[in-house]
Specification:
heterodimer; A: Jelly Rolls; Jelly Rolls; 3 domains; four-stranded antiparallel beta sheet; 19 helices; 25 strands; B: mainly alpha; 13 helices; elongated
Chain lengths: 516, 303
């Protein structure tokens, strides 16, 4: 597997003294230390990297799911705005950053730049257990995570626009992080006493209202940056509707006291919440039974949680299969099956949905499944060991494992289509040259170039996963570009529901981003 | 070697369709315009001469045929878009939309309908066609008619299919669903009374295993009627052999209804792409005869 060019060779024994300045490692027992050192030597992705002064350590928006510990040197958090670059925080030796990515699977919140020559220890998400094995380290990480999560969220949600940083400091002790792994878990039940105000940190929450006529209506799906519980806390204390998890989700819970202080000291925040309350109450009348069923079904099928959903408008689709053929002609192997669930007039075919909570990413033991700032999930093939965990974990069967020769052929085909670009090939390059063209094979020219044993990869996985990568490396999405009737479109789930006049599930963050 | 992450989309991608509206309207509009121009320019075909009008006709047909090439050959499109990526954002985006197959289909239909004009000019001065020319004329007319039929099918069939029950979007899924229905029917009849089994074998099983006449399916598609309704009515009229087995009989009728609807679905799926095979076959035949025609003209008449 590939190594980073700035990776520094440090042995496990040499690493430990460097970690002495990090408080999280203070109380490690010998056994825990040995376990950590063993992991450092054997776990993929645990490495020390050197950055020169001015080097970008991580970029805002990137999904790098590693915890970083500054072993030596100094790193600065840069915040860009219209006025230029502002140094937000400084990380000295022993500091930890990257908890939001490593523990919460979220993108980097800021750019981090090396202020001088800096050594950083990278601990990937799957290796966090070697730190969390220690009680004190676990507490430190959890506290830091809570603090960073609250700061990051309050910095982005419009509700806190008028709230100064000093109040956020006061609010943090009143906040807790609540995590749910399953769908359908009740967070707040209609008519029951509500003990806190919830802001969604990650994932989706389904808002349901049991009407007086006995009907159950799904009103909306709330997502990152949206909140609930305010109606009860500002009103009589009892929940107006129920909130259920719509999958894995993470919430910030602000207790009643913290919420009361927020409303008392910042009336603008309370006004904003009251507007949301009015909108939700109006929504109850707008959502028909049919629409509610559609929303319920979409949540169950995971459509709501998709970031880039390929849908086919069945009022336009002429069933020519050109989308599938285009996929095959571009990638050598089709990653799309024109069959799937139907939501209204749209067919959601079997193609990667680039989920908000990608199970494939969590299941990958080597961090080969990655996410771009735009939300696309892709494979970093040089880190793939071909275990197939991603394919097993995908709840929609949108990942296929194909044998290595077929994969190599498909990658070669893709490279020939996107001429001038190179794509990962599992076999050594010499072997590809050896294969040559027809003439080379006829006259045996290639035989002289057969790879030497040492050139070959130590281990070539028997199979590789393939899935829709939104035609990465190509100038357009083949399926969408090749649909003769414009039936195939790639949209965010929120847009799908806007089109069919359902409730918008677009996040506040997204709205702000769109300039709405 | 760079990983895939290093390579990103460079052309501003538009993920939503252009939606040009009904194709049939475009085709009719172009055809009407061609007729209007022909009427507005009387005798223009004679002035233009057979060679020029023939070349114009050939060029229009070639232009229309480009769609077929673009549809099957993505390579060119990728190359064009790579060049477009170097252009300003707005230009690149317009080129992307213009290069979409949806746009190409529009050019195809417009060129196909507009070919009427040069073709008309080309055949106008002729004094009695030779057998080859008559065949060419017939094929050209068939090509235009099959194209028009295709436009209508592509405009109206998808919606009519979607609103019908038991929709499957791939022929193989229809086959699987029909097989599943047959298995359900056979399992439902197991262990039932002899009269019910006989009624099943006589009336329901032929529906489950048989196919419906294509003409009846075509009429159902055009009229929007449910082809399963008369079948269900006939089976209901038969009635269950025993009153205590009425539920099973009703279930078998439901299965038979679904089977007929799936047959209809399969017919619609075949229709939605089948017309194109005819269209392509006519186009190939026309191309071959045109080659003979051109070669003959050059050989016998010269330039």
């Amino acid at each position: 597997m590939a190594q980073h060019s700035n990776q520094v060779t440090v042995d496990a024994a040499g690493l430990w003294p460097m970690l002495a300045r990090c408080a999280a490692f203070d109380t490690f027992t010998d056994r825990e230390r040995e376990s950590f050192q063993h992991a450092f030597e054997h776990e993929y992705g645990m490495a020390v990297r050197r950055f020169a002064a001015g080097d970008l350590i991580c970029r805002k928006g990137e999904f790098e799911l590693d915890l970083c510990i500054v072993l030596d040197g100094r790193a600065e958090v840069h915040d860009h705005d219209d006025r230029g670059v502002e140094v937000h925080t400084v990380y000295e030796s022993g500091s930890i950053f990257g908890e939001l990515g490593a523990m919460g699977g979220r993108p980097r919140s800021f750019d981090v730049v090396a202020a001088r020559e800096t050594l950083i220890l990278y601990i990937p998400r799957h290796a966090l257990k070697y730190i969390e094995i220690n009680q004190r380290a676990r507490t430190i990480l959890a506290d830091r995570y809570r603090e960073r999560a609250v700061r990051a969220m309050t910095g982005r949600v419009e509700l806190f626009n008028t709230v100064p940083e000093s109040f956020v400091d006061e609010l943090i002790p009143h906040c807790g992080i609540v995590r749910y792994d399953l769908r359908g878990v009740p967070i707040v039940q209609q008519g029951e006493e509500v003990d806190g105000f919830y802001i969604i940190l990650d994932g989706f929450v389904q808002v349901v209202r049991h009407r007086a006529d006995g009907q159950r209506r799904v009103l909306a799906y709330l997502r990152e940056g949206e909140y609930f519980g305010e109606m009860a806390l500002l009103g009589g204390g009892r929940a107006w509707g129920s909130a259920f998890t719509a999958g894995k989700c993470e919430l910030i819970r602000i207790d009643r006291e913290g919420f009361t202080q927020l409303c008392r000291r910042y009336p603008a925040a309370e006004r904003a919440m009251r507007e949301v309350i009015a909108r939700q109450q109006q929504q109850e009348n707008e959502v028909t039974g049919e629409l509610s069923d559609l929303l319920e079904k979409s949540g169950q099928l995971g459509v709501i949680q998709s970031d880039a959903l390929l849908v086919m408008d069945l009022d336009r689709c002429i069933k020519c299969d050109n989308c599938v053929r285009a996929c095959e002609s571009l990638h050598g192997r089709s990653r799309l099956i024109r069959n799937g669930v139907q939501i209204g007039k749209y067919l959601v075919p079997s193609a990667c949905r680039h989920c908000d909570d990608p199970k494939c990413m969590s299941a990958c033991p080597t961090g080969a499944v990655r996410r771009r700032p735009e939300g696309e999930i892709y494979f970093k093939y040089d880190q793939c060991i071909g275990c197939g965990n991603c394919a097993i974990a995908c709840p929609f069967d949108n990942i296929t494992m194909i044998d290595t020769p077929s994969f190599d052929k498909a990658q070669a085909h893709k490279a020939s289509i996107a001429g001038g670009k190179e794509f990962f090939r599992p076999y050594p390059m010499a072997q590809h040259h050896a294969a040559g063209g027809l003439l080379a094979r006829l006259f045996g020219r290639g035989r002289e170039q057969e790879p030497a044993a040492e050139q070959a990869r130590a281990h070539v996985p028997p199979s590789f996963p393939i899935k829709c990568d939104l035609c990465d490396g190509l100038p357009f999405m083949g399926c969408v570009h090749s649909c003769p009737t414009g039936a195939a479109i790639r949209i965010e789930a929120a847009e799908l529901f806007e089109e069919i006049h359902a409730v918008s599930v677009k996040s506040h963050i997204q709205r702000a981003h769109d300039g709405e | 070697m760079p990983d895939d992450a290093a390579v990103s989309l460079r052309v501003p991608a538009s993920h939503t369709p252009a939606h040009y509206g009904r194709l049939t309207l475009w085709a009719v509009g172009c055809a009407v315009l061609a007729v209007f121009v022909h009427i507005a320019l009387p005798g223009y075909g004679l002035r233009l001469g057979s060679y020029r009008s023939g070349i114009a006709t050939l060029a229009a047909f070639a232009l229309a045929a480009c769609y077929s090439v673009r549809k099957r050959w993505m390579w060119l499109s990728v190359r064009v878009m790579r060049i477009a990526a170097r252009m300003p954002h707005r230009v690149a985006h317009r080129l992307l939309i213009a290069d979409r197959l949806e746009s190409w289909r529009l050019y195809h239909v417009m060129a196909g309908a507009a070919v009427i004009l040069p073709l008309w000019w080309h055949v106008e001065p002729g004094a009695g066609p030779s057998p080859l020319e008559a065949a060419l004329g017939a094929l050209a007319a068939m090509l235009l008619l099959s194209g028009a039929a295709g436009s209508i099918i592509q405009d109206f069939l998808p919606h009519s299919m979607r609103v019908r029950p038991d929709l499957e979007v791939r022929p193989e899924d229809v086959d699987a669903a029909i097989h599943d229905l047959y298995v359900q029917a056979e399992e439902a009849i197991l262990g039932r009374s002899e009269p019910l089994v006989q009624a099943y074998l006589r009336h329901v099983r032929p529906v489950m295993l048989g196919t419906r006449p294509p003409l009846r399916m075509l009429i159902a598609t055009i009229s929007g009627a449910d082809p399963a309704a008369p079948v269900a009515a006939r089976l209901r009229a038969q009635g269950a052999p025993a009153a205590d087995e009425a539920d099973i009989w009703n279930r078998l009728i439901t299965l038979a209804e679904r089977k007929v609807r799936l047959d209809h679905n399969r017919f619609d799926l075949a229709l939605s792409v089948g017309w194109m095979r005819i269209h392509i076959a006519i186009a190939i035949a026309l191309g071959v005869l045109t080659a003979f025609h051109v070669a003959g003209v050059l050989y016998f008449a010269g330039l």
